[in-house]
From TrEMBL:
This is Putative aliphatic sulfonates-binding protein. It comes from Acinetobacter bereziniae. Pfam families: NMT1. PANTHER family: ABC TRANSPORTER SUBSTRATE-BINDING PROTEIN, ALIPHATIC SULFONATES-BINDING PROTEIN-RELATED. It comes from the Bacteria. One of its GO terms (cellular component) is membrane. The keyword Electron transport does not apply. InterPro entries: ABC_SsuA_sub-bd, Solute-binding_3/MltF_N, SsuA/THI5. Part of a binding-protein-dependent transport system for aliphatic sulfonates. Putative binding protein. Residues 1-26 form the signal peptide. SMART domains: PBPb. Its main location: periplasm.
Length: 323
């Protein structure tokens, strides 16, 4: 017959084992949901090569298509996906407005947005946009790029007519003459340049924020091993993409149903040397983040710099990339 002490020890051991099993189960969910996007080419590589399916054979991998950062963040906040591919500044805006998310990985540094005008447009400078219609997808990098660009010539969103359209609809509106300018996003922007002769009115890579991968705080707390597995897959995809630019272009062209030269133009503007969230990205976002307060896109009194510090968590990428 067991003594009281033995019973207590057995009970404690059983609880510990149960907690270990529960923690392990929570770390790698039975279903993992991610988005893929044409503006995030490494996501296409991970999906196409089934890198996660191979790494996590006991986990069902589900993919959801995102047209832009706003959609991606909506899916993340609603629980439709666990990992969101977005622009860094869009993630900052989301967290600043109450979304409990954190950024765990840098996919790339793209020049994926610029202000675009039609081939025969009379608009020659940013100042010419005063009073004009600009198509932009609210809450995305192109939208925030537009505000920063206008600010360089003393204009604000109140000096123009912002027409809130999803990226493909913005391109169509520009080509049909329904708007005067469009806050473009690759590969649609590259397509407009090569296929309809659209011109880039204003470019500034420092106003393009990084392409990032984000999760919800709760997911990060419950499933750190899943984050490790996903970052490993994205790192594998990033390295493969760097070594095989022509194959990535072919993949992007096939997935997005684009001419190969359009895909190549987009990728020529994408720097794949980034991976770990660092002071470099944080400082760039803090500089750009001031626009969120100035344009009243966040709640009054929000400390955007503090939000950025809370958003970025480099330990996951450091753990994987450092190996």
């Amino acid at each position: 017959m067991k003594s009281f002490g033995q019973k207590v020890t057995a009970l404690v051991s059983g609880v510990a084992l149960s907690l270990t099993v529960t923690a392990s189960f929570a770390a790698i969910p039975t279903i993992l949901k991610l988005d893929y996007a044409y503006y995030a080419p490494t996501s296409l590589v991970v999906k196409e090569q089934k890198l996660l399916e191979k790494a996590l054979p006991k986990t069902e991998i589900k993919w959801v298509f995102s047209q832009g950062s706003n959609r991606s963040l909506e899916y993340l906040n609603s629980g439709s996906i666990d990992f969101a591919s977005t622009a860094g500044l869009a993630a900052v805006l989301s967290r600043a407005n109450g979304s409990p998310i954190k950024t765990v990985y840098i996919q790339s540094q793209p020049e994926w947005t610029a202000l675009v005008v039609a081939k025969n447009s009379a608009i020659k400078s940013l100042k010419d946009l005063k009073g004009k219609k600009i198509a932009a997808t609210k809450g995305t990098d192109p939208f925030l790029f537009t505000l920063q660009a206008l600010e360089t010539v003393g204009l604000s969103k109140r000096d123009v007519q912002l027409v809130h359209l999803q990226h493909p609809d913005g391109k169509t509106a520009l080509e049909r003459g329904q708007v005067d300018a469009w806050a473009g996003l690759d590969p649609l922007m590259a397509s407009a340049q090569l296929q309809s002769g659209a011109k880039l009115l204003y470019r500034n890579i420092s106003f393009n924020s990084y392409s990032v991968l984000s999760v919800k705080d709760q997911f990060a707390a419950q499933s750190p091993e899943a984050i490790d597995a996903v970052i490993k897959a994205y790192e594998q995809a990033r390295k493969w993409a760097k070594a095989n630019p022509d194959k990535v272009a072919e993949l992007l062209a096939r997935e997005a149903k684009l001419p190969l030269e359009v895909a190549k133009l987009q990728l020529s503007r994408t720097n794949l040397d980034q991976n770990i969230p660092s002071a470099k990205q944080l400082n760039a976002l803090k500089k750009a983040g001031a626009i969120l307060n100035e344009e009243e896109l966040v709640r009054k009194g929000t400390n955007v710099n503090q939000v950025i510090d809370q958003l970025f968590d480099s330990k996951y990428a450091q753990k994987v990339v450092g190996k």
